Amino acid sequence: MKRTLHILFRRDPAQDRQDEVIHYEGYQLLWPDGSAVGVGVDSFCKHGQRLLGLGRHLAGHRERLVEVICFPLRDRDDSLNRLPGARVRRFCLRRTDRQGRLHFLDGTATSIVFDLDRDERVMLDWVGLTGLPDGEDQWFDLAARPADAAVSFPVPDAVAYDTSCRTGA
User: Fold this and answer.
1) Burial class of residue 150 in the structure, from the number of CB atoms within 10 Å of its CB (0-12 exposed, 13-18 middle, 19+ buried)
2) Is 121 helix (H, G, I), strand (E, B) or coil?
3) Residue 160: per-residue pLDDT
4) Per residue in 2-21, pLDDT tens?
5) Distance from the first to the final alpha carbon of the chain
6) Residue 7 and residue 66 in contact, taking contact as beta carbons nearer than 8 Å
7) Could you give the CA distance from residue 94 to residue 60 in angstroms, rounded to a whole number?
8) Rounded CA gap, 14 and 118, in Å?
9) What is the pLDDT of residues 92-119, one digit of tens each?
10) What long-range pairs does 126-130 form, CB within 8 A, spacing at least 24?
11) Other CB atoms closer than 10 Å to residue 105's CB: what's the count?
12) Contacts (Cβ under 8 Å, ≥6 apart) of 75
């Protein structure tokens, strides 16, 4: 069962930063109506930029509406989901107390942390943190493609309560 959101990524050089050897490029995350996405993410490393297609899809523009799809998995060894026109990468969400941190396939922690006390409920439901018990992991495939090239997917009931204007569906 996939969970889909449409997010407007607007380039924000004020959020650029360097952490040790990793360069992060800043972005504002907005819903299609222009309101801010309530999530504590404001920049992406080169892997995140590549996955989201920000360099390629922005192609000199300041912003781009991107369809971001989460495919929850039973376990790490499930077959990789394929989606025409989209990059797909496998991640693990590890919950510790009230937070969930994304990890790459090899177990390396990313800088992306979701927080049950801070982030917008629709984002927490989308990534699966609200249903993940403390101390547990959830593997998922993450895909992204330009929203104007997207095929419509139904949003599961667990997220549908507040996504009608959020997903562009």
Assistant:
1) buried
2) helix
3) 36
4) 999 999 999 999 999 999 89
5) 17
6) yes
7) 35
8) 22
9) 999 999 999 999 999 999 999 999 999 9
10) 126/3, 126/5, 126/70, 126/159, 127/70, 127/93, 127/100, 128/3, 128/70, 128/72, 128/93, 129/93, 129/95, 129/100
11) 12
12) 139
In Å, what is the CA distance from 78 to each residue of 41, 58, 72, 160? 28, 32, 10, 26
Q: Is 112 helix (H, G, I), strand (E, B) or coil?
A: strand
Domain range summary for the chain, segments of one domain joined by +? 3-152
Q: So what's the pLDDT on residue 115? A: 98
Q: What pLDDT sits at residue 169?
A: 38
Cα distances (angstroms) measured from residue 1 to each of 12, 131, 141, 157? 33, 14, 11, 11
Per DSSP, what are the bridge partners of residue 87? 144
Residue 60: predicted pLDDT: 77
Q: Encoding tokens for residue 7?
A: 């997010």
Residue 157 has pLDDT above 60, yes or no: no
Both tokens of residue 49?
């930029």
Q: What is the pLDDT of residue 20?
A: 87
pLDDT reported for residue 149: 53
Q: Which two tokens stand for residue 87?
A: 């990059």
